[in-house]
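On clarity, I found the account of how folds are encoded harder to follow than it need be. An entry of this sort, consisting of the sequence and the corresponding backbone structure tokens, reads as follows:
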Amino acid sequence: MPRLDRRELAAIFAGGIVGAIARVWIGQHVLTTSTWPWATFIINVAGTIVLAYSVTRLQERLPQSTYRRPFLGTGFCGAFTTFSTMEVEILDLLRAGQIADAVSYAAASVACGYLAIWVTTALVRRLKTPL
């Protein structure tokens, strides 16, 4: 059985607090007049960028750390991004008969997520100076 690392759990917990607060703040401050769920879309793409940046940077550029990845990846990004809310919003759009919005939201979320990973990883790998 793996040994429980309380400091790693604390890092995940701290990252989760920051991520959850950021998600709620963005969700409350992104106002839209359309049916497109902009807040969740922005949150998920931004979270993908943060995760791609931090994983690439921590793995390839910085000295190994026991607590950075749990804080940023599991904690912050895990609490900040939300696949379940995206799914509920897609279902709500479908129930409201807004099929084009539902399909475009799902497709754009996946496409922009993959694009964010690709661009962010490529940029981090090209950086000459540490950030």
